[in-house]
Structure formats: C-alpha cells, structure tokens
Amino acid sequence: MEKKTFYWGASTSAFQVEGGYGEGGKGLATTDVRKVPAGVTDSKVASDQYHHLEEDILLMKELGISLYRFSFNWTRIMGEGYEENPAGIDFYNRLIDLCLENGITPFPTLYHFEMPQKYVEDFGGWQSRKCVELFVKYAEICFRHFGDRVKAWGTINEQLIASAATDLNGNHEANQDEKMKNMYQMSYHMSLAEKKTFAIFREIVKDGKIGPICSMQVIYPETPSPNDILAARNAQDFLQNCFLDMSVFGRYPIGYSNYLKTKGWYPETKAEDAEVLTNNRPDFIGINYYCSTCVRTLAEGEDNSQLPPFYRNELFILGNNPYLKKTEWMEFGIDPEGLYVGMRDIYERYQLPMIVTENGLAFSDILEGEKVSDHYRIEYLEQHINQCERLVEEGYPVMGYCPWSLLDLVSSHQGFKKRYGLIYVDRTDDDVKECRRIPKESYFWYKDRIQSNK
C-alpha cells in the first residue's frame, strides 16, 4: 500500500460470495459440510461470483472504489488441502488481473473462516500443529503465485470467531471442558501460523504489507460499578487483546494467561515458538466493526452456558446498553462513535496503521421494481465514515475504509434474509434464480461519497 493514500474500498469473503461448489478443482471445506438451519441456504452457490466475476469487477469500477478486500478460498487454492490446484490459482489470477486492469488494488485475506474439511478428519484441524505447517505452505503458495502483483495482504479474519465457531473449525468435542481447552489451543496454533507466515512473507513479497484482520471489540461496562469496569477490562482482554497482543507482541495479556492456567485451558507450546512469536510483526491492523458491546459482572449462580464459548467464564457476561438504537439484525445497537473509540485505543496500544476492513448494516432489504431504497444503510455508513474522517483529522493513520459488503452475501447463519450489500443479489434462500446484480440506493450514494473525497 502506498503512503499517504486513502483507499475507498468494499469487502467480501470467498465462502460467502463465490459459490462454484465442486467446480474448478475446489475441495471440500468446513463451510461446505456445516449444518445450516432449516430454510436457510448454504454457501454452495452463495452470490455466484464464480460465474459473475467480470460483471462484479465492472460494478466495482463503476462504483469508483480503489481497493477490493476479498479472501482466497483455501480449498480452491489447495483442493483437499495437500497440493496446489492450478485451476483455482488461475481463477484468482483472473480476479487479481481484472482488478488491476480496472484500477482497483487487490487486498486478499488468506483465512476467512473456510478451511479444508480433510484436515479436520485427518488430524483435528487447528487442534494439531500439522495445521500450522499446512497453513504456512498454503500462504507460501499464495505469495509465490500472486505476490508479484498483490502487495496488501490480510492473514486471519476475526480469530475470535475462527477459533470459537465449531461449525467452521471442526471442534466437535463432546466434553465441554475439553472443548474449551481445544478452542484456546486452536487459537494459539492460528497465532503461531500467522507469525510463521509473516516470516515467509518478508522473504517472498519484500515490498508488500501484511496484517491481521481483527474483530474490534469496543466494550462498555453496564454501570460505573468497579466490578462492572473490571468485567469490561477482562472482556477486552478475552475478546480482542489476546489476539492482537499475540499478533503484534508475541504474548498474551497476563490476566488472560493466568485465568487459562487456573482453568487448565492454557495451550501447549514449545520452547522454540517464543522466538517466532516475538520476532515477527505485522505492518498494519485490519478493523472489522459493526457495533459495540456492553458487559457486566457475572452474578452468582448465573447460567452462561448458552452464550458463545468466548463468554463462558466467570469474569463477565453480556449486559445491555440502553443508549443505543437497536434493529432486527443489529441487536447490540448502532454505535458510530464506538468506531472512533476503538480505533483510537488500538492505535495507542499497538502504534500501527489501521484500515477498516468491514463495517456495515444488516437489513432485510426489499426489491421494489428494480430499486432498493436502503436509506437506513446510507445513514449508518455516513455516520461511521464521519468517524474515520475524525480519526484522520486528528492524526491517526487510517489507510482506508471498506464497507461490508460489496454485494449481498450468504450470511453465516441467516442466509439471504440478512443483507449487507451495496448491490442487491436477486435470489432467496430457496430460489437461486439468476443472481442478478441490482445496485441499491447506497451504491450510488457511496459512489458520490468517493467522488467528493478525490
């Protein structure tokens, strides 16, 4: 990425946009075999970008974006996971070349939730150090094939979710205590793989930049009670700092480490890991942000077993923030200023440039005639872009902004009922139709917003 350039972009992820299931040598991924709720589509067709690639990139050009943040499908690059897949590499060469021909900087993420199912079956996936070496092999293949043209790279998207979502990583241990131990072990292996990837990246893409894509956590205490404030600090360590401290410094927060050791969940390590972890650092941090979170201290005897696994501890539990507007799909509430608060804190802690890689509003958009009037999305994006501009004006190094998402994608658990796109994809969960692309009102607004800032 060039210095002093602000990138106006848009984001997608491979398993949510591509489709092309079983085509072009693509292997079976965890996202292909996971169970989705009844009445919700899977990712086998998704938005069918595999067959709409040229059209999508022309829509990007018309939109005026200067950066496309996407991800590689690990199983399109490596089939079942052990050898290169030339057809998959050709597909991404075509994507990259089309971007460059149309003045768009390609910005891929290596790992966005999808991984070879064969790894889960053969050795438990990220539970094993074998997965570390295979990820590094995969990354090296990508660097060697694409690094001559691609200079901006993301490593792992939202390690918080990647390590906790069992349907995406294959952690199906029945014993809940062992399952939690597995989660933290998998996360450690992801961090180790990322660090080794940084090292090999420096050798191959000498003029490139690389960094993690974090799920930024802006945590508020529910009350000014000292216990709730401590709960918020603990939540920040468990939901964000443990990942970014490892990415940048090669270590965990002390409180986090102590808690895992007390529970018997601290990951197994090797002495030689320490040098790898401390000597390899990222160039920037990708910021995914949708909303802030409110927590409080856990009441005695309170049941937290139904919450996501990263909330299953005695240190904090979800609270309620009455000051934020909540919507059907944004149940934590809309908090534009949280973007400013969180990015300011991240810069002060890590002193690295940042780029907003995901930020968007989910809504059950309705196509009326050939139009989608999504004024609510425009309002959301405008408010968050204003916070980015505030950060830049104050001197924080923000490299760019990418709304989630370029076009409607298959949501992880809500299919096509939950839409984020600037472009409407004309399909439903039970009827693929032709996946026609119809720019929404927000598409034209964003186009004008980009033009006004040139």
Automatic annotation (TrEMBL):
Active-site residues, Swiss-Prot/TrEMBL: 358 (nucleophile)
Q: Which GO terms describe its biological process?
A: carbohydrate catabolic process
UniProt keywords (A-Z) are:
Glycosidase, Hydrolase
Q: What is this protein called?
A: 6-phospho-beta-glucosidase
What Pfam families does its record include?
Glyco_hydro_1
MF-aspect GO terms: beta-glucosidase activity
What PROSITE patterns does the annotation carry?
A: GLYCOSYL_HYDROL_F1_1, GLYCOSYL_HYDROL_F1_2
Q: Which family does it belong to?
A: Belongs to the glycosyl hydrolase 1 family.
User: Which PANTHER family does the entry mention?
Assistant: 6-PHOSPHO-BETA-GLUCOSIDASE ASCB-RELATED (PTHR10353:SF122), GLYCOSYL HYDROLASE (PTHR10353)
- Enumerate the InterPro entries for this protein: GH, GH_1_N_CS, Glyco_hydro_1, Glyco_hydro_1_AS
**One Gene Ontology cellular component:** cytosol
